[in-house]
Design goal:
Radius of gyration: 17 Å
Shape: globular
Distance between the termini: 18 Å
Order of helices and strands: EEEHHHEHHEHHH
Largest sheet: 5 strands, mixed
Number of strands: 5
Length: about 200
Amino acid sequence: MNGNERLIALIDLECTCDENDKFKKIKSTIPREEMEIIEIGCSIINEKGDLKNTFTVFVKPELHVELTDFCKNLTHISQNDVDKGITLSEALLKLDDFLINNNVNSWSSWGYFDKNKIIQETSLKKINYDERFLSSLPHSNLSNIVKKHRGLNRKCGVGKTLNALNLEFVGDRHRAIYDTMNMARIVNKINKDGILIKI
């Protein structure tokens, strides 16, 4: 690895969830504020979008320990996956170790949900987020950066952005690790003629 490379961690989360559709008169059994992180995915890239390393960990939920059928179908995460998972505190420590060992300079997510969710849930579970290495890194919103530099719709998700760039989604949709790997492919594709993420 080039010691002068600036490295960015692309981070995505999957959370407990349930179907919520007012038109079908279906109300979620899991309030938004009680959604819990069940997977942390991370792909490390350089500024060109070259994939350098990946990390994923399953997290055991505490408030709603049984995954809903909707959540399992959406994320392809099984009850066994989370039952064998670790606590959020342990998962964030493992993520910190991964980021430190890979000399990461900053991190980015698709929107602000992931950053806000980590802050919200660590507060709820009395985990000191400020003590985490992740909290010391500058954060950027990759969807905003893509819009600014390439004129794509900020509200487009990873899948639609891939389509706009004539790329197919690789892996299982709504899995954190695959979302970050596909985010890396977006950065790589649109950085053929310049640098997208400024650290």
